[in-house]
TrEMBL record:
Protein name according to UniProt: GIY-YIG nuclease family protein
Domain of life, source organism: Bacteria
One Pfam family hit: GIY-YIG
Classification via PROSITE patterns: GIY_YIG (PS50164)
Phylogenetic lineage: Bacteria, Pseudomonadati, Campylobacterota, Epsilonproteobacteria, Campylobacterales
Family: Belongs to the UPF0213 family.
Residue span(s) of domain GIY-YIG: 1-78
C-alpha cells in the first residue's frame, strides 16, 4: 500500500499538509464531511496543490514532519511551484 504526503491550499490562502492512502477520498473529506481536519473545516474549499508517493507510512510521516516543521511558507510555495 502506498502512502501520500499532500499539501492543500485553503480558501484563506493558508497551506495544510497531511498524509493519506487515497488522496481523492481524503480531499473529498476535507471539503465536505466531518472527517476532514479541524484546521480545514473553517477554511473550505481546499484544493490539492502537491503530492508525493511513499512506499510506507514511516517514510511518508518523516516527509510530512519535514514539510510541516522544517520548511518555511516560502519554501513550501517553492515546492508546490507557486
Amino acid at each position: 500500500m502506498s502512502y501520500f504526503v499532500y499539501i492543500l491550499q485553503c480558501a484563506d490562502d493558508t497551506l495544510y499538509t497531511g498524509i493519506a492512502t487515497d488522496i481523492s477520498r481524503r480531499l473529498k473529506e476535507h471539503n465536505s464531511s466531518e472527517k476532514g481536519a479541524k484546521y480545514t473545516k473553517s477554511r473550505r474549499p481546499v484544493a490539492l496543490v502537491y503530492s508525493e508517493a511513499f512506499p510506507d507510512r514511516s517514510s511518508a510521516s518523516r516527509r510530512e514532519y519535514e514539510i510541516k516543521k522544517k520548511m518555511s511558507r516560502a519554501e513550501k510555495l517553492s515546492l508546490i511551484g507557486s
